[in-house]
Each structure stands twice: as structure tokens, then as C-alpha cells.
Amino acid sequence: MVKPVFRSDLDVLQQKYEAAVAGLYANCRQVHGFDRPVLIEGGAYPGIWLECGPLESTVFALYEPDIALNSHDIFFKLQREDGYIPCTVLADRHLTGQIQMVVPLAATAYETALLTGNRDFLERAYQACGRWDRWLAAYRDTRGTGGCEAFCEWDTGHDNSPRFAGLPRDCPEQDARICPPGEGRLPYLAPDLSASVYGGRMALSRMAVLLGLQDEADQWERLAARTRQAIMDNCYDPASAAFYDVDADGRFVPLLGDVLTRVLGEQVVEQELFEEIFRRHLSNPREFWTPYPFPSVSVSDPLFDGRLPDNSWGGASQALTALRAPRWLEAYGKPAHLAHLMERWVSALAASPGFKQQMNPWTGEFSTTEHYSPSMCLMLDFIPRLYGIRLQGEEVVWNCRCPQGAARASYGLSTPGGWAELVTESGVSVLTLAGSRLLEVRGEARIYTTPGGEWLGAAGICMSAAAVRLTLPDGTSRSMLLKPNEVLRGMANLGRV
């Protein structure tokens, strides 16, 4: 496998990118009960967590696809006969006292199967994730809503969050089937856990299609639709345009937190409702659109913890939330907002020593543990999304812009059409594929082509309108004015120069 190549004359950025790659390799280690290396969380977390390890491994798969396979297979191998998957695997043991899930295991397994083309892995993932879904339905839907319930703080990975203030961190007897007794508020019907079930079922449906199991694909879609309805009927409040936990007495738990981003991460809501949620909350500088988005609790919420203690999901902007952001900002058509968020995180990381877990949403100052894989993954994922090339389904995506403070940047990637390279210098980007020049782009824009290099369209990736000029291989030029997040498909809407 030919690895991606990023080069920039901005030394601090180049060195940070290379340090991220080296740090991720250093965090590939063997853990309990598995004979192959996986990508661990790093720093104070010497193991792999179900809520995040598989996602991080899909980012690192650009360099090491086998690590992505291993970082899923470990959970499949350690799955119990009843379908339960350990929430955490450490160097010397695995933990079973929570479910600890955010991005669905089935979703990252599906992406890994597509990336590697490994059908045996796809079949393993389909069977294991199906058993996991049945375990969740059997033990984490005590009210029979079709959603998923939280029994403890660590179920959602929201360490030290006011969401679970005063409630147990894990389940009794290290048994995730047991809701702690004597806690009148539990279990919570949790919108984010339910969204993870929904997203997992949609991924299982897509897996079934690839495996030629259309009847099963249809069944997974029907189950997903029931879960989605449970979220909308029980956890959504139209008055505030937000999602909340529902306690055992049927009352909303009043906390405006990053649960919103997790529900959107699985595309639970339609575009119209997304726009309202995004406008009122996530793009609101008085709530979540801080100088370094997204805080784990709205800065306007009375329970926001402005002290920002270590490992706090009570206020700090978390690297994991940033790493998950492309999943929903891309799906809902916000590439300009995503680019802004990525630039803020990349600039903060470049200015900070090491790779830490969380940062102050106003200053960008980092804290909590070193050698943290999610922060390293941000560099590997955000650099090509900002200044490089990505494969997105049947399209090649070229992000034409230069890092602030750099005069030149380049990114190379192996694609089905050959080696693709994007070089940006002095405001001009040159796109080449398999040694042939495709296009010259003056100005900042995202360009879409087929794997063979045929023009498909462009998108606005700046937070203000950007004038862009294209020069084709035959010397003719076209112009366009791209508004933030605007997508133009085809050549018909472009002006001749």
C-alpha cells in the first residue's frame, strides 16, 4: 500500500503532522486476549475503547489498514456468546461494566470493509454486530420503546459530565445488564445511545446488501426506523429544538450538551430540522460555536463547568467530538463550517506541545494526558480535508487551499485512477492524476471529480463568498463565485472567462 504524502513549507505544521503519524505507530500495541496489535487510546488510557477505538483506526487505515481490521476484530473475538461486546480492552484485562458506545461499531466496520475490500471481514462484522444489536435490544430497552437506555455515566463516555451528576459510573458486578438499584432517575432513555443503535442498524442494512441478503437488509431498515421514531417521539423537544435524556419518571434531564452532535452524527433528523438545530445551537457563538468548537456542554447552560478540569465532558472541547464532526457536517452539507472547525483545531494543535485530549473552547489551550490517539488522528484526518485529497464514495475530492502562514503545500494519495497530487502555491492549486494535469484552480474551493479525473462540481469551503477561477487543460478558463457551503454541479453554472 502506498501511503499518503503531505508536504508544507510551514515547518511547525509539517513537524506536527509527522509527529502525529509517528505517535499513532507508537500507540499500536497488543492488549489482553488478542494476538495482533490494535490502536490504543494512548496516554492515561492504555487500551482500546469501543466508543472510539474503531473510528480512530479507520482514520489510521490510510497508513495501516491491517490496524483497522485488528481494531474491530478484537471486539468480535472477545464477544460473549450472549452477544455482549466488552466496552474496553486493557493490557491485562477487559471491562464489562458498561456499553460505552458512540459511533456505531457496525458503521466503522462497514467503512473498513469497503476500504480494504475484505469480504471475510465483512461477514465477521455483520454477524458480530447483529448479535450486539440483539443484546442491546434485550437488555437496554427496558421500556420497550425501540430506543437504548443508559444505566450509568460511562455508558456514553461522558466522564465527569453534569449529565450523570450523582449517578453511578458503571454497573454493579461489572455486568452491563444490571441497572444500579436505588437510583430513582435511572435508566435514562438516551438519545445518543439510541442514535448509535439507529446508525448501527442502517450500517447492518448496507452490509446485508453487499452480502446479497436483501430481505435482511429490509428488516434492519425497519428496525432502524422504529428506533428513529423512538428518539423523535421521546427525546426531542420542539420548543427548544434539542434532544434530552428521559429519566425513569418520563422527565427530560435538563442539560444542553454535545448529545446533539451525536444524534446528528447518525443522520437521525431530516435536513429541515437539522438546519433549525444547527442555527439555534451548534452554529450559535453563545452556545456551541465558540472560537474552538464544540464545547461538551453549551456555554450558555447553567451546568457548564467553566473550571474545565481534566477529562471533563462538562464544558471542555473534546478531540473526540471534533474527530466525529465530519460525519455529520459533511452529511448535512456544511463543508465551510467544517473547514473553519478543522482550521481552529489544527492551528491549536500545531501551537501546542504534544497531543492532549481536550481544550479550552475560548483559548485553544490543551489539557489532560499526553500521547492521545484521537488528537493525532485529527491531524491525519483534517489535513487532507483542508489541504489535500480524499476518496468519498465514487468521487475524488480535492480541497484547494493553503495552510495559513504557508506559501506552499502538497498532498499525494493513491486512488483508483492512479496517483493523485494536489499542489497549492501562491493561491493557485494544480490538480494532477496519473501524471496528467487536470485543472488549475485560483482561489479556495473544493473540487469533485470522478476517479478518472472528469469534472463533477465544486463547493464553497470559506465562511464568506469566494471568487474562483478554473483553467482547463486546453487553456480555457471558467469562473464562479462560491458562497459558503454552496455546491455547484456540472459546468453549466460556471461563467466563461
What does this structure look like?
It is built from twelve helices and 25 strands. A hairpin with a 5-residue loop joins strand 20 and strand 21 (455-459). The strands form seven sheets. Strands 1-16-17-18-19-22-23-25 form an eight-stranded antiparallel β-sheet. The mean pLDDT is 96. The chain has helices spanning 11-26, 53-60, 65-77, 105-116, 119-139, 191-210, 214-234, 259-265, 271-282, 319-329, 335-351, 373-387; strands at residues 5-8, 28-29, 38-39, 47-49, 88-90, 94-95, 149-150, 188-189, 236-237, 242-243, 317-318, 358-359, 366-367, 389-392, 395-400, 408-415, 418-425, 428-433, 436-442, 445-449, 455-459, 466-471, 477-482, 487-489, 495-496. By secondary structure, the protein is an alpha+beta fold. The chain is globular.
How many strand segments? 25
Shape: globular
Q: DSSP strand (E) fraction?
A: 15-25%
Number of separate helices: 12
Question: Any chance you could write out the topology, listing elements then pairs?
Answer:
Blueprint: E1 5-8, H1 11-26, E2 28-29, E3 38-39, E4 47-49, H2 53-60, H3 65-77, E5 88-90, E6 94-95, H4 105-116, H5 119-139, E7 149-150, E8 188-189, H6 191-210, H7 214-234, E9 236-237, E10 242-243, H8 259-265, H9 271-282, E11 317-318, H10 319-329, H11 335-351, E12 358-359, E13 366-367, H12 373-387, E14 389-392, E15 395-400, E16 408-415, E17 418-425, E18 428-433, E19 436-442, E20 445-449, E21 455-459, E22 466-471, E23 477-482, E24 487-489, E25 495-496
Antiparallel strand pairs: 1-16, 2-3, 4-5, 5-6, 7-8, 9-10, 11-12, 12-13, 14-15, 15-20, 16-17, 17-18, 18-19, 19-22, 20-21, 21-24, 22-23, 23-25
Helix pairs in contact: 1-12, 2-3, 3-4, 3-5, 4-5, 4-6, 5-6, 6-7, 6-8, 8-10, 10-11, 10-12, 11-12
